[in-house]
C-alpha cells in the first residue's frame, strides 16, 4: 500500500553528513517503491536553500524559512512551526511522519504536531548518547517526551537500540533495527584501467602516495598506506590517533598515513607531527609519511580510500560507522575500535577490532599489517560481499514493513516472504495505538513526577493551537498537491546489479510487479496457445 | 471569482476579483444602498467644510451667490446633523472625522487583478488600486522578454500557497501574477493553460 510520507529533520542537503545522505537515499528508494515522499527541513543560508524545491528523483523538499527574531536567532519555542507544518501535512496528504536524528528540534516538533493531528509517526535515531552529563540528561528527557507517543522507533544498530530504549524508556518491541547502507557503485575498489591512468597522470595528487595495484598482493616491506577519514573531534577519538601515530611510525618503517577531515583537534595533530623527529615523518626520499588533507567532500572519499590498504577508525562512540562499510566496499582492511555499533557492521574477516587504548591500537594495526602481508585475506572479494550485505533498496523495504506495521495494513507481496510465523507480528503494539487525546495525555503523564505534568500542559496547548488553526486556516481552503505524474520506469544501470542477484522482482513497486507478472502470464499463455 | 474575456482568438483577459458577484436581487440592493450611504457621507463632509468655512470667514448675506440653496442645505436633516456635530465636537475631532470619512468613501472594498495575454505582443498584468483616487498599477511584458510562465509554491506568512509567475529576461525576480489574491490551484492551472496556449499558439 503506497503511503504519503514526510521525512522531518533539521539535517538535510546541502549540508553534508551521514543523516542527510540516509534521508536522501531512503526517500529515493521509497519513491521507487511507489510511495510519495517529501522532506521537511529548515532553510540554509550558504548555499542558499529556501522555499520549496524538487530534487531529481521526484523528491520534494520544503526548506522552512526561519522566523528570524534578531540576527538569525530563531524563536526557540515548541509550537512555532506548527502552522506551517500543518499546512504541509494537509496539502501533501501525509499519513506517516518520519523524524530523523534525536538532536533535531524540527524532528521532535514534527512528531508532536503530527500526533496532535492524528497522524502516524516513526522516529529514526542515528546516534548514541551518554546518561551521566547534564546535557545528556536534558536531551534524554526531551527524547522521552517525544518518544512517549511515537508509533515506532528505528535504530541503526543493536547497540543504538539498547541505548535508545534505555534513554527514552521505550518498549523494546516497538523498536526496530534497520542499519544504514552504502551505494556500492560509488565505492568501488580501484579498477585496473584506473590504476594505469593514475600512474600516467601523476600531476593530480602528487603529494599523496600512489594507489596500490589491486592485482598485486602486498609483499613484506612494501609500503602500506593507512587511511583515516573522520572529523577531528574528541568523540571521534582523535586524541587516541594522535598518541598512536608516533608509535606506529616508529615501529613500522613502511607505513604511510592519509588523514582526511577537519575539526578542532586538527591543530593538536599538526603540532604533534611538527614535534616528531624528521626521520620519522619523512621517508628516505623526502616524502612526507603523514598527509593531512583537511576536509574533503563526500564524493572524493572513494578516491582517497582507494589509495590505501587499511582504514583506521579510532572513534570513541559510533552508532553505526558508515565509513567502515564504505572502506570495506572499496576493498580496504578495517581496523576499528570496538565501541557502539561498530562490531555489528562488518564480519570479523574484514576487520581487526581493538580496544580504545593506545597500545591496543598499535597492536591492532600490527596485526592487520601482518594479515595483509601474509595474504590471509582476499581484499578484492570485499566489494562483492559488502554489496550483498548493504543495499538501500533493502533498507527501504524494511522501512516499509515498519510503516505497514503501524498503519495495520497488509504488506506488499514482495515484503511478505521475509517474515515467518515467529516474526509475523513482531513490534505490533499489544493494543492498538490510540489517537484519543485522553490516551495520549496518559502516556505523557507517565513520563515523570514534574516532567509528566509539564508535558501534559504542552500537549494540551498544542491541541488548543490545533483547534485555533483549524478555524483560522480551514482545511478546505488549503490546496492539495498534485501527485507527480506517473512515469514509465526505465531500466537504469543501477537496477542491473540487482537483477544480477535475481532479486529485481523484490525491488519493484507493487503495481509494477503486478503489471510485470501480468505481462509474464500473458507471455506464458501466448506460448501455450501457440503450442 | 475568475472572469474570462476572449474577444478574439489571439487575445484573452483573465480578471480575478474579490468582489462578490452582482447577480442576486439582495446583492444589488446591498450594493446600491452602500453607494447611497457613500454619497450621503460625502455630502456630510462637504456641509461640514462649508459650515467651518462660513464660520471662519463670515461674509454679509448679499455676497453669497445662491442664498436660498445654502439655506436649504443647512436646514435639511443632513445639515442639522452637521451643525450638531460642529457644536458637540472639538476642532481636532472634526478634522479627524472628515479625513477618515473621506478615506473610507474613496476606498475600494475589493481587489481586482488581471492578466491580459495578446499573441505576438506580450502579456500585461494589473492590480487594482486600493482607492478610487488613483489608477491601477500595470506592467507590460513583451513576448520577446518572456522566458517562461509556470506555477510554483511558496511560503507566505503561515501558509503555503501556489502562485503563477512569469520569468522575465534579464531580471533577478520573477513577476507574480495575481500577487495579492493568490487564487487556488485549479484556477491557476486554467489560467496557465489558457495563457500558454494563447501566447504560443499551443494546443493544450
List key phrases describing it.
heterodimer, A: 531 residues, alpha/beta, Rossmann fold, eight-stranded mixed beta sheet, six-stranded parallel beta sheet, elongated, B: 204 residues, PH-domain like, three-stranded antiparallel beta sheet
Model description:
The complex is a heterodimer of chains A (531) and B (204). Chain A is an alpha/beta fold and 531 residues long. Chain A has three domains: 4-181 and 392-477, Rossmann fold (3-Layer(aba) Sandwich), CATH 3.40.50; 184-389, Rossmann fold (3-Layer(aba) Sandwich); 493-530. Helices cover 43% and strands 14% of the residues of chain A. Chain A has helices spanning 18-32, 82-91, 105-116, 134-147, 158-168, 192-200, 238-251, 266-275, 278-281, 301-305, 322-329, 342-345, 358-373, 382-389, 392-407, 413-416, 437-445, 449-472, 493-500, 504-507, 510-530, and strands at 4-8, 36-42, 51-54, 60-64, 68-70, 73-74, 96-100, 120-125, 152-155, 175-177, 224-229, 255-260, 290-294, 310-313, 333-337, 351-354. Chain A has an eight-stranded mixed sheet, sandwiched between helices. In chain A, helix 7 runs parallel beside helix 8 (266-275), helix 7 crosses helix 13 and helix 17 runs antiparallel to helix 18 (449-472). Chain A is elongated, with a radius of gyration of 26 Å. Chain B folds into two domains: 2-19 and 110-200, Roll (PH-domain like); 25-105, no CATH class. Helix content of chain B is 41%, strand content 26%. Chain B has five helices and eight strands. Chain B has helices spanning 25-56, 67-75, 77-88, 91-105, 185-200, and strands at 2-5, 11-17, 112-118, 122-127, 137-142, 146-156, 159-168, 175-177. In chain B, a hairpin with a 3-residue loop joins strand 3 (112-118) and strand 4 (122-127). Chain B is elongated. The A-B interface holds A 51-52, 62, 64-65, 83-84, 87-88, 91, 473, 478-482 and B 152-155, 158-162, 184-185.
Amino acid at each position: 500500500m503506497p503511503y504519503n510520507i514526510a521525512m522531518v529533520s533539521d539535517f538535510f542537503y546541502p549540508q553534508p553528513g551521514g543523516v542527510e545522505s540516509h534521508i536522501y537515499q531512503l526517500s529515493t528508494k521509497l519513491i521507487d517503491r511507489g510511495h510519495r515522499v517529501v522532506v521537511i527541513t529548515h532553510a540554509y543560508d550558504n548555499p542558499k536553500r529556501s522555499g520549496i524545491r524538487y530534487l531529481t528523483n521526484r523528491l520534494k523538499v520544503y526548506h522552512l524559512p526561519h522566523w528570524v527574531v534578531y540576527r538569525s536567532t530563531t524563536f526557540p519555542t515548541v509550537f512555532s512551526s506548527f502552522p506551517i507544518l500543518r499546512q504541509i501535512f494537509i496539502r501533501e496528504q501525509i499519513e506517516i511522519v518520519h523524524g530523523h536524528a534525536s538532536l533535531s528540534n524540527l524532528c521532535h516538533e514534527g512528531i508532536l504536531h503530527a500526533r496532535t493531528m492524528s497522524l502516524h509517526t516513526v522516529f529514526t535515531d542515528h546516534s548514541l548518547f551518554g546518561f551521566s552529563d547534564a546535557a545528556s540528561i536534558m536531551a534524554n528527557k526531551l527524547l522521552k517526551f517525544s518518544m512517549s507517543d511515537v508509533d515506532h522507533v528505528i535504530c541503526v544498530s543493536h547497540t543504538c537500540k539498547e541505548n535508545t530504549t534505555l534513554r527514552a524508556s521505550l518498549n523494546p518491541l516497538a523498536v526496530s533495527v534497520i542499519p544504514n547502507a552504502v551505494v556500492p557503485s560509488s565505492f568501488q575498489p580501484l579498477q585496473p584501467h584506473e590504476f594505469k591512468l593514475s600512474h600516467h597522470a601523476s600531476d593530480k595528487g602528487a603529494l599523496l602516495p600512489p594507489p596500490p595495484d589491486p592485482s598485486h598482493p602486498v609483499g613484506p616491506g612494501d609500503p602500506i598506506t593507512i587511511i583515516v577519514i573522520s572529523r577531528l573531534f574528541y568523540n571521534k577519538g582523535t586524541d587516541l590517533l594522535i598518541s598512536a601515530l608516533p608509535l606506529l611510525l616508529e615501529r613500522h618503517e613502511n607505513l604511510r598515513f592519509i588523514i582526511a577531515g577537519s575539526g578542532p583537534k586538527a591543530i593538536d595533530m599538526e603540532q604533534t607531527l611538527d614535534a616528531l623527529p624528521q626521520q620519522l615523518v619523512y621517508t628516505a626520499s623526502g616524502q612526507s609519511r603523514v598527509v593531512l588533507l583537511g576536509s574533503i567532500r563526500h564524493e572524493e572519499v572513494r578516491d582517497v580510500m582507494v589509495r590505501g590498504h587499511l582504514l583506521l577508525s579510532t572513534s570513541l562512540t559510533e552508532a553505526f560507522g558508515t565509513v567502515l562499510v564504505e572502506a570495506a566496499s572499496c576493498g580496504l582492511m578495517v581496523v576499528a575500535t570496538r565501541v557502539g555499533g561498530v562490531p555489528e557492521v562488518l564480519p570479523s574477516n574484514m576487520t581487526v577490532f581493538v580496544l580504545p587504548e593506545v597500545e591496543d591500537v598499535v597492536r591492532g594495526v600490527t596485526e592487520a599489517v601482518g594479515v595483509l602481508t601474509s595474504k590471509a585475506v582476499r581484499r578484492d572479494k570485499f566489494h562483492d560481499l559488502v554489496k550483498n550485505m548493504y543495499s538501500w533498496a533493502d533498507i527501504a523495504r524494511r522501512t516499509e514493513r515498519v510503516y505497514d506495521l503501524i498503519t495495520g495494513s497488509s504488506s506488499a507481496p514482495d515484503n511478505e516472504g521475509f517474515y515467518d510465523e515467529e516474526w509475523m507480528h513482531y513490534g505490533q503494539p499489544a493494543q492498538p495505538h490510540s489517537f484519543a487525546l485522553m490516551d495520549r495525555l496518559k502516556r505523557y503523564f507517565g513520563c515523570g513526577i514534574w516532567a509528566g505534568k509539564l508535558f501534559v500542559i504542552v500537549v494540551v496547548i498544542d491541541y488548543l493551537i490545533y483547534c485555533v488553526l483549524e478555524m483560522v486556516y480551514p482545511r478546505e481552503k488549503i490546496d492539495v498537491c498534485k501527485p507527480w505524474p506517473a512515469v514509465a520506469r526505465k531500466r537504469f544501470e543501477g537496477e542491473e546489479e540487482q537483477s544480477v542477484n535475481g532479486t529485481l522482482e523484490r525491488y519493484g513497486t507493487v503495481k509494477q510487479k503486478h503489471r510485470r507478472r501480468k505481462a509474464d502470464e500473458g507471455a506464458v499463455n501466448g506460448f501455450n496457445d501457440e503450442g | 471569482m475568475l472572469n474570462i474575456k476572449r474577444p478574439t482568438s489571439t487575445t484573452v483577459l483573465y480578471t480575478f476579483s474579490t468582489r462578490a458577484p452582482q447577480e442576486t436581487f439582495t446583492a444589488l440592493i446591498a450594493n446600491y444602498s452602500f453607494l447611497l450611504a457613500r454619497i450621503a457621507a460625502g455630502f456630510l463632509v462637504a456641509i461640514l467644510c462649508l459650515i467651518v468655512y462660513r464660520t471662519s470667514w463670515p461674509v454679509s448675506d448679499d455676497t453669497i451667490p445662491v442664498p436660498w440653496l445654502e439655506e436649504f442645505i443647512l436646514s435639511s436633516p443632513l445639515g442639522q446633523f452637521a451643525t450638531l456635530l460642529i457644536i458637540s465636537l472639538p476642532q481636532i475631532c472634526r478634522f479627524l472625522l472628515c479625513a477618515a470619512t473621506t478615506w473610507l468613501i474613496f476606498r475600494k472594498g475589493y481587489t481586482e487583478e488581471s492578466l491580459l495575454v495578446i499573441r505576438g505582443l506580450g502579456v500585461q498584468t494589473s492590480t487594482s488600486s486600493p482607492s478610487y483616487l488613483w489608477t491601477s498599477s500595470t506592467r507590460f511584458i513583451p513576448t520577446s522578454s518572456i522566458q517562461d510562465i509556470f506555477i510554483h509554491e511558496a511560503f507566505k506568512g503561515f501558509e503555503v500557497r501556489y502562485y503563477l509567475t512569469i520569468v522575465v529576461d534579464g531580471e533577478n525576480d520573477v513577476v507574480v501574477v495575481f500577487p495579492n489574491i493568490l487564487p487556488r490551484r485549479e484556477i491557476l492551472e486554467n489560467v496557465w493553460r489558457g495563457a500558454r496556449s494563447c501566447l504560443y499558439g499551443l494546443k493544450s
